[in-house]
Design a protein that fits this description.
Oligomer: single chain
Distance between the termini: 23 Å
Helix content: 55-70%
Strand order of the largest sheet: 1-2
Strand content: under 5%
Largest sheet: 2 strands, antiparallel
Number of domains: 1
């Protein structure tokens, strides 16, 4: 009886607590976004927006020889269009407002993503708090127009993937293709999401197997997957539609791909997988060439900038998730299997790829900020 009464009170409190958090967070951001100054890459990012905007509007071909032509353009073009004609100071402040509002949108979607996974609004709110209260990410959410939009749209694309995989439809595929394409055009590393969409889509149909699907024996019997008429056929058609639409939108959102999509996409992959920056970064008391960083560079930065309590819950969550994958004991753990696999891939695969490719990183782990939401979802499993 007491549990029922407490649950009822908590449900009623939801309609008070959630508005207070989201309105309060928005008010806070709008109050302090002008307190952040120009950062090191601000001018370079503004140049990316300007060159791409001029190419789109007037056909200015200087973009083709522009050194930073392969950097994600869509967000910078929007910022440039919005701030066109403003004084330089107001341009910068307006850009910072745009970055914060994009992060705010990501936090909103993160609430729905975490709530969907945990089936608990309070844990969804906890996820948002853990995301917002990370010291480095909170600061960057006011000026980092590279990594914060990528983090935000990775969350949004993951949310659309969750709904798409559970019960595919052409509408859901369209929404997921749009979010995936925006993600890829912000940074090519977002291509992980379309690849995982294909992988999970085929795996759920048994069209690809791992040891006869015995690794995750309940993967294909997930709670919440809705049957379709001509099940496999319809899913494959919708998946093919998603891939085609996503590819078309990636080209549409990337001006540099317009005149030679295949060649320029390959060039972009080669250049951005290991950007040829010859500078050095300070790491553990020594200046190290950014293209020759040790394997522990990113893990060390994550450890020394993330609150200790978060790290402890991450470890506990990883133990819980891995155990649950191989030893599902009830309907809940079985229904979480594919979601847990996705979260673990989201957390570990990008870091692993970066290490294997010896990717270039600059003074910190901002390039990998987008894996932190997955880390938060791992913490929720511990809770």
């Amino acid at each position: 009886m007491k549990n029922i009464r407490f649950s009822s009170m908590l449900q009623k409190a939801k309609w008070v607590i959630l508005p207070i958090f989201f309105i309060g967070f928005l008010y806070l951001g709008l109050s302090i976004y002008r307190d952040y100054g120009t950062h090191y890459d601000e001018e370079a990012q503004m140049a990316i927006g300007e060159h791409n905007y001029n190419y789109v509007i007037s056909g200015d071909k200087t973009l083709i020889d522009f050194d930073d032509r392969y950097y994600g353009a869509i967000f910078e073009v929007i910022l440039h269009a919005v701030t066109l004609g403003m004084l330089r100071t107001e341009q910068i402040f307006t850009r910072h407002l745009g970055v914060f509002l994009t992060f705010y949108l990501g936090v909103v979607f993160f609430y729905f993503l975490a709530k969907k996974i945990t089936n608990n609004w309070f844990l969804g709110l906890m996820a948002c708090l853990l995301l917002v209260l990370h010291p480095r990410i909170f600061a960057d959410s006011f000026y980092n127009s590279k990594d914060i939009p990528f983090l935000s749209f990775f969350i949004i694309a993951s949310f659309s993937l969750l709904y798409y995989i559970e019960s595919p439809s052409f509408f859901k595929a369209t929404m997921h293709a749009i979010t995936s394409a925006v993600l890829v055009t912000i940074r090519l590393g977002g291509g992980i999401v379309p690849v995982l969409t294909v992988g999970f889509g085929l795996f759920s149909q048994g069209l690809i197997k791992l040891r006869g699907n015995n690794i995750f024996p309940n993967f294909r019997n997930l709670q919440g997957l809705k049957p379709l008429k001509n099940f496999t056929h319809n899913r494959i058609v919708i998946l093919f539609y998603y891939l085609i639409l996503c590819a078309i939108l990636v080209i549409f959102f990337s001006p540099i791909l317009w005149y030679n999509p295949a060649s320029e996409f390959i060039n972009a992959l080669q250049r951005m997988s290991n950007y040829p920056w010859g500078g050095k970064v300070l790491y553990r008391g020594e200046f190290v060439t950014a293209t020759a960083l040790p394997w522990h560079y990113i893990p060390t930065w994550i450890l020394i900038t993330t609150p200790v309590g978060y790290l402890i819950f991450t470890i506990l969550g990883l133990i819980t998730m891995v155990w649950g994958l191989f030893h599902p004991t009830d309907a809940i753990s079985r229904s979480l299997q594919w979601q847990d696999v996705y979260i673990l891939i989201w957390l570990f695969l990008p870091i692993t790829i970066g290490l294997l490719l010896h990717s270039t990183f600059y003074d910190g782990w901002r390039h990998m900020f987008f894996v932190y939401p997955a880390m938060v979802l791992v913490m929720l499993r511990a809770l």
